[in-house]
Design the sequence.
């Protein structure tokens, strides 16, 4: 979303009470720390306002986010959702394209392979000014939006689990 025009995102979240006490793990990068710290702050503010716990894990860069999520989920398995937080600013080389493609594909793969949502809170911008516009400026606060998206996907995930028929294992 490039503007704050997605008003439906901020509407009442039905079923939010089911999420109290849940854990959302935030993965954030060391690169562009001031911007990423603001994304994290927005996430934490929204989630704590709904009684949702957070844990933050810091990784060196955006490419390392999918690995950290996969390892955490494989070993600990107590997260209800993950939010990837990074800011990749375009430079003079194609490195930007490779980093953006890598983290995007990694998060997409995780969403298809693990049983909890992985939210894309990665800013991919041309300038620091564009990043600033997305952490409380004219384009809203993408950290807050990522938190709301996580909550909505957590509720949807719970609804899917409730609809799965319970099978009974018995002896014949």
Sequence:
């Amino acid at each position: 979303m490039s503007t704050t025009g997605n008003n439906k995102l901020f509407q009442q979240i039905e079923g939010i009470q089911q999420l109290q006490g849940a854990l959302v793990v935030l993965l954030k990068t060391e690169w562009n720390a001031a911007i990423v710290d603001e994304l994290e702050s927005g996430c934490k503010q929204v989630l704590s306002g709904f009684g949702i716990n957070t844990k933050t894990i810091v990784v060196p860069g955006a490419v390392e986010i999918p690995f950290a999520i996969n390892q955490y989920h494989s070993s600990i398995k107590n997260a209800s959702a993950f939010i990837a937080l990074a800011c990749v600013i375009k430079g003079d080389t194609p490195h930007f394209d490779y980093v953006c493609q890598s983290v995007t594909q990694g998060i997409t793969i995780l969403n298809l392979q693990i049983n909890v949502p992985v939210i894309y809170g990665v800013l991919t911008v041309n300038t620091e000014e564009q990043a600033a516009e997305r952490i409380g400026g004219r384009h809203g606060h993408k950290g807050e939006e990522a938190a709301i998206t996580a909550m909505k996907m957590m509720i949807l995930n719970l609804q899917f689990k409730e609809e799965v028929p319970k099978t009974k294992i018995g002896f014949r």
About this structure: Helices lie at 33-49, 65-75, 95-113, 128-132, 142-163.
